Amino acid sequence: MSRQANRGTESKKMYWYLPFISPTASLHLMNSELFTLTYGALVTQLCKDYENDEDVNKQLEKMGYNIGVRLIEDFLARSNVGRCHDFRETADVIAKVAFKMYLGITPTITNWSPAGDEFSLILENNPLVDFVELPDNHSTLVYSNLLCGVLRGALEMVQMAVDVKFAQDTLKGDSVTEIRMKFIRRIEDNLPAGEE
Amino acid sequence: MADEALFLLLHNELVSCVYKSAEQGEGENGRCVTKLESMGFRVGQGLIERFTKDAARFKDELDIMKFVCKDFWTSVFKKQIDNLRTNHQGIYVLQDNKFRLITQMSAGKQYLDQAPKYLAFTCGLIRGGLSNLGIKSIVTAEVSTMPACKFQVMIQKQ
């Protein structure tokens, strides 16, 4: 009885272990310029293909979502992160583990809403925009919108419906890049049709 | 430094996005390949500018091809080209026995028909790189058994 109680507190105490980078990270590291430039080529192509920026934003988000739903598996397999108990923990994992692992940066977490269901990620230097200058005629383009899709897609796979959007962007003259995340609801496990 | 999983997933999305938009529209296969190739071209141009920043001046064409096979390939795919062959008349064959973008797909003949989609971007990458080093070329790729593939570079004389 007492032993079980012990275990309970223990599991609560060490809820996740924070690897700065995963043990296998060096195997996976690559030149980030390749990623940055490829992303740039993609945005350029989309701007040619679609007439307005809104459609480009939407398409980028969609592609990000597709990436996110796969990336989460890679993430869970390579980091030692288990299930998060609340949104604050999720925020920590995203900023300190996921961003660090995939983009090599650690955004800061700020602006918590009183209810604790909303926060901001502040990116000092967004690697996606390394060589980018936005022309005047694309003022509504959200260049790094892929990131929003990635975050949304990845969190959806761990049963969290989250709203993600850019609140500030250095490309548009803001001093920092800010991603605003809002927790909407927990997605319930659905049993496959025909099963009780 | 970024993580390679990101690039691999982005590349997959790139391919499926280009092909999906073609399905809804005219559905010409050739144009999709061209589109991917031209994206690769732009990326190749940018990359070679960054990678040759500190490199010594190249002696000749072969020297450039060696640079592409060793340094360029290592920076992009983290391994060297396994075999470089040439007829000394402007045709080079670069063979990669374990090409990164298709290693995850299969190790044999399964999905062979899908392979060209995943090579177009890299063909452009090579062509763009060479073009910024002053070499005009045509790059094609062929696969007989995945994940090995061969890139053929035909130099165009001015």
UniProtKB/TrEMBL annotation, chain A:
<keyword id="KW-0564">Palmitate</keyword>
<comment type="function">
    <text>May play a role in vesicular transport from endoplasmic reticulum to Golgi.</text>
</comment>
<dbReference type="InterPro" id="IPR016721">
    <property type="entry name" value="Bet3"/>
</dbReference>
<keyword id="KW-0931">ER-Golgi transport</keyword>
<dbReference type="GO" id="GO:0005783">
    <property type="term" value="C:endoplasmic reticulum"/>
</dbReference>
<comment type="similarity">
    <text>Belongs to the TRAPP small subunits family. BET3 subfamily.</text>
</comment>
<dbReference type="Pfam" id="PF04051">
    <property type="entry name" value="TRAPP"/>
</dbReference>
<dbReference type="GO" id="GO:0005794">
    <property type="term" value="C:Golgi apparatus"/>
</dbReference>
<dbReference type="InterPro" id="IPR007194">
    <property type="entry name" value="TRAPP_component"/>
</dbReference>
<dbReference type="GO" id="GO:0030008">
    <property type="term" value="C:TRAPP complex"/>
</dbReference>
<dbReference type="GO" id="GO:0048193">
    <property type="term" value="P:Golgi vesicle transport"/>
</dbReference>
<keyword id="KW-0256">Endoplasmic reticulum</keyword>
<comment type="subunit">
    <text>Homodimer.</text>
</comment>
<keyword id="KW-0333">Golgi apparatus</keyword>
<keyword id="KW-0813">Transport</keyword>
<protein>
    <recommendedName>
        <fullName>Trafficking protein particle complex subunit</fullName>
    </recommendedName>
</protein>
<keyword id="KW-0449">Lipoprotein</keyword>
<dbReference type="InterPro" id="IPR024096">
    <property type="entry name" value="NO_sig/Golgi_transp_ligand-bd"/>
</dbReference>
UniProtKB/TrEMBL annotation, chain B:
<comment type="similarity">
    <text>Belongs to the TRAPP small subunits family. BET3 subfamily.</text>
</comment>
<dbReference type="Pfam" id="PF04051">
    <property type="entry name" value="TRAPP"/>
</dbReference>
<keyword id="KW-0333">Golgi apparatus</keyword>
<dbReference type="InterPro" id="IPR037992">
    <property type="entry name" value="TRAPPC6/Trs33"/>
</dbReference>
<keyword id="KW-0256">Endoplasmic reticulum</keyword>
<dbReference type="GO" id="GO:0005802">
    <property type="term" value="C:trans-Golgi network"/>
</dbReference>
<dbReference type="GO" id="GO:0030008">
    <property type="term" value="C:TRAPP complex"/>
</dbReference>
<dbReference type="InterPro" id="IPR007194">
    <property type="entry name" value="TRAPP_component"/>
</dbReference>
<keyword id="KW-0524">Neurogenesis</keyword>
<dbReference type="GO" id="GO:0006888">
    <property type="term" value="P:endoplasmic reticulum to Golgi vesicle-mediated transport"/>
</dbReference>
<dbReference type="GO" id="GO:0007399">
    <property type="term" value="P:nervous system development"/>
</dbReference>
<protein>
    <recommendedName>
        <fullName>Trafficking protein particle complex subunit 6B</fullName>
    </recommendedName>
</protein>
<dbReference type="GO" id="GO:0005801">
    <property type="term" value="C:cis-Golgi network"/>
</dbReference>
<comment type="function">
    <text>Component of a transport protein particle (TRAPP) complex that may function in specific stages of inter-organelle traffic. Specifically involved in the early development of neural circuitry, likely by controlling the frequency and amplitude of intracellular calcium transients implicated in the regulation of neuron differentiation and survival.</text>
</comment>
<dbReference type="GO" id="GO:0005783">
    <property type="term" value="C:endoplasmic reticulum"/>
</dbReference>
<dbReference type="InterPro" id="IPR024096">
    <property type="entry name" value="NO_sig/Golgi_transp_ligand-bd"/>
</dbReference>
